[in-house]
Amino acid sequence: MSNKAETKHLKLRGNIWWYQRRVPKHLSHHYPNQSFIQISLDTGDIREARKKRNVLNGELERKSLSMTSNSESLRFRELVREMDRDRKNYPHDWDAGIYPDRLEEQGRKLELEAYMTVNGRQDFSRKYRLTISEGFQMWLDDIGHTKTEEHSKKIEKAIKKFGTYCFKHFDWVDSPDIAIEDIERKMVYSFIKHLGKTLKKSTVQATISRINTIWMYLERVDELEGKNPFKDHIYSNAEADQSEKREAFTKDEVKKIQAHKWEKPVYKLLVDLGIYSGCRISELCNLKKKDVVEDDGIVAMNIEKGKTRAATRTVPLPDFIGQRLLEHIKDKDEDDLVLGISSKTASRTFSNFKTRYISQSKLKAFHSFRHMYITAMERAGVEENVTAQIVGHERGKTMSYGYYSKGHELKKLKEAVEKGLRLMGTAEY
């Protein structure tokens, strides 16, 4: 923990530590005529002061959470927009049917505060501000069902990481669930620099892009306005300027990988499927028995759950690996996972094995098989659009098994696969 984080909201006066922080804007009505919260912690021990500070921070957070729910926040903003429209269209009698005293008597606090905000008596908009997690939930409820579960979880993770970073490093941020209107460009820039210390350029860009997805959605549904702080950033540093393309395993390394005696035999199948299909490890781990199909002697995999919607496709397999796959799943139920291991566990297991027995290079990983597969297809003269269709780089005319007509196109794809994989120099070719 940095020294700045250790003493955040703490100030030493004489020999006594004080809790001192600016009043959070959305709690300002709880502290009228007060810009700062200042409380003596009655201790000169920094460790005790930190404990008391954390308790006070927790109390403020609970007060904030108890103020309003996401549904109340959304309803408040809808009411304000409706009243604003009425005020613009009917400036003389827009509030003729609104009786503040009656609203107060009936305990309709939300409607009363919306009315007071619009008529200028007191602005409650900060109390019902839109937070980044609320924006994510709106996106999830509205269009999240059109995305993969993995994609949605990555967006949620990126949002939480950004909010936590801002809460720790910017004094005016009063919660990890940061308000959208509080996000400034310099905060995003600082976050990018922070991520760049340990992550690759492409990973940093992907993280910002995921948060930007929520910002752009909220713009489209008219929940926010102003410049987008996540756009047009420069991602450049010493590490980022280096090539980040995966390195291919050598022929000897591939033979060593295939010859390895795994503790769980299913990893042998996982590796061979990676080599001979070009699929991502997550796609293979999400594969179910019902996704393995056979037509006219050709065994293929329906990739229904990929990195993106464009990844949905059918991948024909070489005969030897196709038969092994059928044998492996013969006693499974239709909805059973083919491999029975999560992509996270599989990635970690293969990475540990690779580092220990094959190579220390960070650019060599399971994903290298995909790059090798695509390279082999290119060198074999397979048309780019055919390769793209097989590996799921762009949407083609036939993206699931049900679209094939009598297996004709599947045969053409199988021929392309065999043509490309002969150049990989692995044991069976």
UniProtKB/TrEMBL annotation:
Signal peptide: none annotated. Pfam families: DUF6538, Phage_int_SAM_5, Phage_integrase. Residues 244-418 form the Tyr recombinase domain. Gene3D superfamilies: 1.10.150.130, Intergrase catalytic core (1.10.443.10). Keywords: DNA integration, DNA recombination, DNA-binding. It comes from the Bacteria. The keyword DNA-binding applies. PANTHER family: INTEGRASE_RECOMBINASE PROTEIN MJ0367-RELATED, PHAGE INTEGRASE-RELATED. Belongs to the 'phage' integrase family. This is Tyr recombinase domain-containing protein.
